[in-house]
């Protein structure tokens, strides 16, 4: 199969018929073999019944429905797991992205060596309250990630070589930083394509004002993960262990010194008069504390990883 189009959607009943029709037109024009993977992120409108109906008319459609709203990242993650095309294209469901970009996106991945092609909505049809914070985000992400050639990390329209989507795990609010995840996974040919962007045709944006706070927290976690490896908290565990070992050896030394004095019959200082004794005590206590901090953080992060699992209600 040439192309999988993965579409996360939350309450987009009006756009779906138009969107899938448009995609079909483009695919047929270029003779692509394809599938459309619709991931219904717990819609509360009639999106799912619209999808069921569309599927009866359009055999390239497959769909997954979440039991509740888990967020765009979880929806993309499921789509990535299912997708079978050589090139995987993601697109928003609201008709703001244009399926007409698909042939060029495909060509860049198949023939121009791109691992990932990210759309750039150079001319953007969104309110200023959204475009200004987005500019700041992009600047911060560019400098932290070292991916200097992207203007628009969060564009919903992207294309991937199949390997890329099978190697990355999109969680939390990470859909805003997929190029960064791809870079960490070792995919370095990241390209940008200027894409057409339209105003939202139906309904309103599905993200509230909290999007920027959440996005910022994820940016921080990206920064920490990048610095300290996959498990940021191992950092504390490691420092704690070193401190503990230092304290332990000082104690051993003090005991050894005392035993030697007893054996040789030479006078020795009471251990509490030794500055080294206090140093070892502090080193052992701090070491234990830090080690436990790391351990607890590890438990918490595993638990929250479990919580982030999504429940799938239906598949067609
Ligand atoms: N979306 C989703 N789950 C959510 C929020 C949004 O699957 O919790 C989908 C939404 O239906 C759309 C895409 O993600 O297909 C982008 O959302 P939206 O257009 O609301 O974002 P904006 O264009 O305002 O950034
Ligand atoms: Mg939109």
From TrEMBL:
<dbReference type="InterPro" id="IPR050256">
    <property type="entry name" value="Glycosyltransferase_2"/>
</dbReference>
<feature type="transmembrane region" description="Helical">
    <location>
        <begin position="276"/>
        <end position="300"/>
    </location>
</feature>
<feature type="domain" description="Glycosyltransferase 2-like">
    <location>
        <begin position="4"/>
        <end position="167"/>
    </location>
</feature>
<protein>
    <submittedName>
        <fullName>Glycosyltransferase involved in cell wall bisynthesis</fullName>
    </submittedName>
</protein>
<keyword id="KW-0812">Transmembrane</keyword>
<keyword id="KW-1133">Transmembrane helix</keyword>
<dbReference type="GO" id="GO:0005886">
    <property type="term" value="C:plasma membrane"/>
</dbReference>
<keyword id="KW-1003">Cell membrane</keyword>
<keyword id="KW-0448">Lipopolysaccharide biosynthesis</keyword>
<dbReference type="InterPro" id="IPR029044">
    <property type="entry name" value="Nucleotide-diphossugar_trans"/>
</dbReference>
<dbReference type="Pfam" id="PF00535">
    <property type="entry name" value="Glycos_transf_2"/>
</dbReference>
<dbReference type="GO" id="GO:0009103">
    <property type="term" value="P:lipopolysaccharide biosynthetic process"/>
</dbReference>
<keyword id="KW-0808">Transferase</keyword>
<keyword id="KW-0328">Glycosyltransferase</keyword>
<dbReference type="GO" id="GO:0099621">
    <property type="term" value="F:undecaprenyl-phosphate 4-deoxy-4-formamido-L-arabinose transferase activity"/>
</dbReference>
<feature type="transmembrane region" description="Helical">
    <location>
        <begin position="235"/>
        <end position="256"/>
    </location>
</feature>
<dbReference type="InterPro" id="IPR001173">
    <property type="entry name" value="Glyco_trans_2-like"/>
</dbReference>
<keyword id="KW-0472">Membrane</keyword>
């Amino acid at each position: 199969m040439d192309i999988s189009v993965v579409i996360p959607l939350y309450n987009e009943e009006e756009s779906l018929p138009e969107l899938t029709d448009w995609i079909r037109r483009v695919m047929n024009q270029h003779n692509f073999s394809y599938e459309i993977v619709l991931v219904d992120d717990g819609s509360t409108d009639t999106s799912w019944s619209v999808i069921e109906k569309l599927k009866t008319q359009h055999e390239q459609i497959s769909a997954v429905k979440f039991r509740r709203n888990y967020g765009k990242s979880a929806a993309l993650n499921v789509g990535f797991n299912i997708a079978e095309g050589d090139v995987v294209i993601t697109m928003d469901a609201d008709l703001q992205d244009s399926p007409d970009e698909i042939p060029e996106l495909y060509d860049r991945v198949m023939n121009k060596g791109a691992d990932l092609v990210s759309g750039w909505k150079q001319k953007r049809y969104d309110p200023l309250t959204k475009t200004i914070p987005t500019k700041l985000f992009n600047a911060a992400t560019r400098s932290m990630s070292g991916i200097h050639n992207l203007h628009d990390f969060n564009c919903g329209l992207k294309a991937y070589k199949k390997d890329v989507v099978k190697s990355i795990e999109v969680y939390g609010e990470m859909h805003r930083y997929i190029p960064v995840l791809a870079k960490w996974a070792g995919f370095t040919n990241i390209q940008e394509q200027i894409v057409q962007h339209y105003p939202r045709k139906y309904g309103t944006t599905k993200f509230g004002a909290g999007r920027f706070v959440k996005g910022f927290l994820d940016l921080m976690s990206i920064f920490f993960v990048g610095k300290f490896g996959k498990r940021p908290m191992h950092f504390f565990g490691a420092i704690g262990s070193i401190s503990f070992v230092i304290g332990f050896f000082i104690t051993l030394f003090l005991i050894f010194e005392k035993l030697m004095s007893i054996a040789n019959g030479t006078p020795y200082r009471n251990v509490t008069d030794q500055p080294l004794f206090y140093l070892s005590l502090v080193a052992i206590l701090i070491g234990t504390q830090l080690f436990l901090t790391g351990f607890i953080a590890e438990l918490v992060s595993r638990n929250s990883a479990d919580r982030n699992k999504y429940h799938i209600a239906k598949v067609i």
